Amino acid sequence: MAPSRDDPTTSEMRHDWLTDRWVIVAPQRAARPVEFVHQPPRIISKHACPFCQGHEHETPAAVACYVDQGHAPGKSWHVRVVPNKFPAVSSPEAVLAVDSNALAFKQLALNSENSAWKESGYEVCSASAAMCSELYQRRFLSGGHEVIIEGPEHLQSLSQLDLGTASLVFKSYRDRLAYWLTEQALAYAVVFKNVGEEAGASLVHSHSQLIATDLVPTDILRAAQRMDQFFEQKGECLFCRTVREEIEQGLRIVEQTPDFVAYCPFASRLPALVTITSGQHCARFEALPDRQLEQLAELVHRTIRRLEQIFSDVAYNYVVHTAPASHQGSAAFHWRMDLFPRISTKAGFEWGSECFINPLTPENSAEQLRSVRL
Ligand SMILES: [Zn+2]
Ligand SMILES: [Zn+2]
Question: Which ligand neighbours the alpha carbon of 237 most closely?
Answer without folding.
Answer: 2
